[in-house]
Amino acid sequence: MKVVVCIKQVPDTKGGVKFNPDGTLDRAAMMTIMNPDDKAGLEAALRLKDQYGAEVTVLTMGLPKAEDVLREAMAMGADKGVLVTDRVLGGADTWATSQTLAGALRNMEYDLIITGRQAIDGDTAQVGPQISEHLNIPVISYAQNLKIEGDSVIVERQYDDRYHVLKAKMPCLITALAELGDPRYMTPGGIFDACKAEITVWGRADLKDVEDSNLGLKGSPTQIAKASDKVRKGAGEKVTLDPAESVDYIVGKLKEKHVI
Amino acid sequence: MNLEEYKGVYVFAQQVDNVVNSIAFELIGKGKDLAADLGCEVTAVLVGSDVKGLADELAEYGADRVIVVDDPELKEYRTEPYAHALSSVIEKYKPEIFLVGATAIGRDLGPRVSARIHTGLTADCTQLDIGDFPLNPVPGKEQKHNQLLMTRPAFGGNTIATIACPDFRPQMATVRPGVMQKRDRQAGVKANIEEFNPGFTPNQNYVEILEVVKAVSETVDIMDAKILVSGGRGMGNAENFKILEDLAEVIGGTVSCSRAVVDAGWKPKDLQVGQTGKTVRPNVYFAIGISGAIQHLAGMEESDIIIAINKDETAPIFDVADYGIVGDLNKIVPALTEKLRAEMANKN
């Protein structure tokens, strides 16, 4: 079977958020990582490789430097990497991004497409389901467990207070939760091979059945009116007291605010 | 696309097991504000099997009209038939604005629908307004009026963006639960109820439900709590949450937690506050042993009063706390519980 995992290179917002002196986000100073949900999806795909000999291809769209994230995935065990990069694809919202990736996927063979549930920079969770619609295949979002049965995939789909066990005929797209698998480490041999491996690079011309009017900034229905760094309300009081004084302090504040 | 044809504010009235989700009332509440600015009505779209009886409740929370799509194929949520229901409603009725809750259902349904009808979708909005786009006139570019301006956090809550969808309709947004205010329920108020069934013929996109496994939840929904006693990694272990449960009991609160606690397996995910958990805005939020990662702050910083206890005086939680106490939670929390118990006893 053939599995394509869509991965994204994102700034590492966890603990490594850097600010410019004027208070804006310093993106250039932030490390980039493979988006965590995508990495869990990749792990699930690699388990299918271990179990059934599935061929795993990783696909990303981004700047040329996004090649790094493909090599990382290959060092973990992915067989092939495809980078879609072209200036006309820049500034895409989720509609245009999903059109781009669907255009690339139409040129690939797949039984299963896995995307992360959401990326930590945009947090939208939209691109996976939108790709599935463009390709007219079933989608199962929020997958916490996955197994193969014949020509179908059986997935535990998480909701707030329950999960559904769902069965879909392949080809199918699933979006991965972190629960889908703790990502394995790259192996030294894998890193060595991944450095030398050839990455397939596609541009606009390599996308199949996509109109120009659906790509990049111009093809994006949503437009940014304003972007700014979040203004927080700011710190209040901070005290260092011994435990008994701390208790009196908190009780005093609760009384002052009529909570008790 | 003739944008003028699209009228009215529509909301997806999410129900599960024939119980309307609170997000439906929140969307109606916000929808009423937007509709007042635009001079139009709010329509709730109710999708399910045997759900017609829920329409009155939507009316009592402010819906002017309810469209009911009722079909046995819609008994449990599945992406394809629900996407077919909503896109058929959109094609027939042509709404100007369509709001969906940013729930585990809405965040799957919204993108599939927006992709089918070719419009923009803004995810996880925390603020919605009617205004001009561009916000200020730009030479050589038409400034459109009465646009839906959708504001949302990004980069894990580090930045905030306002987004418009000027050239496509409907303007679609998913909205974070717990952020918009529902209106007070007006008993006996009625709405126009319309039934609509576009026909449901299973195809390859219909997945099969093999099993529905419901989690047994004994706890109050943390989004409804007035006082939250929230613990983080600093609690040290699962057993130590007992001291938070004691405090919560005395003060009439509910225990919640940070992501680290869920990741460690100390508490279930439905108690998690933050970007990937729930957004809460209680009257009082105790952040105990929580360092305050930006993703956590995004889920609780709108609380009225934030009280933080942490032994690390540089913890970012102190940047948003109204009252921050640098100290040992294991000494302070039990003593606080005892003191409050005495206070409450005196009061009664």
Could you explain how this protein is built, in words?
The complex is a heterodimer of chains A (260) and B (348). Chain A is an alpha/beta fold. Chain A has a single domain, classed as Rossmann fold. Chain A has helices at residues 36-52, 67-76, 94-105, 127-135, 188-196, 243-256; strands spanning 2-6, 9-11, 32-34, 55-61, 80-84, 112-116, 139-149, 152-158, 162-169, 172-176, 200-202, 223-229, 237-240. A nine-stranded mixed sheet of chain A has the order 9-8-7-10-6-1-4-5-11, sandwiched between helices. By secondary structure, chain B is of the alpha/beta class. Chain B folds into two domains: 3-195, Rossmann fold, CATH 3.40.50; 222-347, TPP-binding domain (Rossmann fold, 3-Layer(aba) Sandwich), CATH 3.40.50.1220. In chain B, 26% of the residues lie in helices and 28% in strands. Chain B contains eight helices and 18 strands. Chain B has a seven-stranded parallel sheet, sandwiched between helices. In chain B, strands 15-14-16-17-18 form a five-stranded parallel sheet. Chain B has a three-stranded antiparallel sheet with strand order 8-9-10. Chain B starts with 8 loop residues before the first strand and ends with a helix. The mean pLDDT of chain B is 94. The interface between A and B is large, with 79 and 94 residues.
